[in-house]
Amino acid sequence: MEIKDFIKLLFAIICVEAIGIFGAIFTIPAIPAWYVLLSKPALTPPSWVFGSAWTLLFALMGIAVYMILSKGWARREVKIAFGIFSAQLALNVLWSALFFGTRNPGAAFAEIIILWLAILATIAAFSKISKAAAWLLVPYILWVSFAAYLNYAIWQLLLVSN
User: Fold this and answer.
1) Cβ atoms of 123 and 137 closer than 8 Å
2) Which domains does the chain have, with CATH numbers?
3) How far apart are CA 129 and CA 71, in angstroms?
4) Which of 83, 115, 130, 161 has the fewest CB atoms found within 10 Å of its own CB?
5) 3-state secondary structure 9-24
6) What are the backbone angles phi and psi of residue 40, rounded to the nearest 5°?
7) pLDDT tens digits, residue range 51-66?
8) What's the pLDDT tens digit per position in 4-48?
9) Other CB atoms within 10 Å distance of the CB of residue 74
């Protein structure tokens, strides 16, 4: 890999990680003030797992989008794939704003379903350009599937406790 390509790869990863950090603006203050007080399902991992998992997933997304963009911005399918990718990334941040920012697990659950579909659409669009880039997003959709389960369970536990 040439140095200019490595710099582009690093830039893609940093940009995607930065967007993830933007979502953390909603998350971090809500953890001690709200999230730790919630009843959670038995399968909820320790809090430290979430930050590590999301850091890795955002890095994989950065690598995947770099792989797509390296195929050439002039290609129509690259522009479409990037647009879908960007939309799902915005939905990812929106989920954090809804769940942690507004403390509304019901709205967050409805939104995470849309996010999941957007990730699936991103995988489909990426697979037309680069199978490897599409496969890099599989851990992401699996994690979001698990997050949807946790979101739903927390929402239901909240409804029962109120």
Assistant:
1) yes
2) 3-161 (1.20.1260.100)
3) 8
4) 161
5) HHHHHHHHHHHHHHHH
6) -130, 155
7) 999 999 999 999 999 9
8) 999 999 999 999 999 999 999 999 999 999 999 999 999 999 988
9) 7
